[in-house]
C-alpha cells in the first residue's frame, strides 16, 4: 500500500480512537460522586450527541462550569450512548461494548471500501495504459467514490483528464491532491502540466518554482520534466 493511501487511513483510525477516549472520559465524569463533575459530563455528553444547537461558554474545569462548546458532528452512533431501557443512563460496560461494535463496523466498512477502490484503481490503470482514457476516467470516478482521501487517485484522474484535454478538471483534481498531501511532487508537476497546456503560463511558472522550492533534491528531475513538457507540446502542435 502506498504512503499517500495509508497515511489518511491510519490518521482516520487514530482520530476515531481519540474520540473513543473522549467518550470514555465523559462516562467517568457522569459516574463521579461530585455534582460539578457530573454536570460537566452531562454538558459534554449533550454536545457529543449533537443535542445542543447553541454555542455555550464552558471551561473543562471540575471546580467551575465555564466551557466553550462549538457545534460538531458526532462520529459515534447515538445508540452507543443510550440504553434501550433508560435513555438517560448507561453502564460503562454496555457503553464500551457498543463503542467497540461501532468501531469494528466502521473499520470493516473502511476495509471493504478500500478493497473495492484497489480493484477499480487497477482496472483504471490498465485502461489508461491501453489509451482507453474515457474508460479509465470512469473507473477512477468509481475508485474515488469508495475512498475520497487518496492523493494518488486524484493525481491519476488528473493525468487522465490531461490526456482527454479537460485541463480545468485536471487542475481541480491536482489542487485536491495537494490538499491531501502538500508534499506530493507528482501532483504539483501534473498541476504545472495542466496549466501549461491550458495556456496559463504564469501559473505554470509559479507552480514549477514551488515544486523546486519544496523539492530541492529533485531539481534535475524537475528541469527534465519541464524540458520534456516543452518537447511534448511542440510535437502535439506539429501533429495538429
UniProtKB/TrEMBL annotation:
The keyword Acetylation does not apply. SMART domains: TPR (SM00028). Coiled coil: none annotated. TPR repeats lie at residues 117-150, 151-184. Signal peptide: none annotated. It holds the Pfam family TPR_1. InterPro entries: TPR-like_helical_dom_sf (IPR011990), TPR_rpt (IPR019734), TTC12 (IPR043195). SUPFAM superfamilies: TPR-like. It comes from the Eukaryota. One of its GO terms (cellular component) is cytoplasm. Keywords: TPR repeat. GO terms for biological process: axonemal dynein complex assembly; sperm axoneme assembly. This is Tetratricopeptide repeat protein 12. It comes from Zophobas morio.
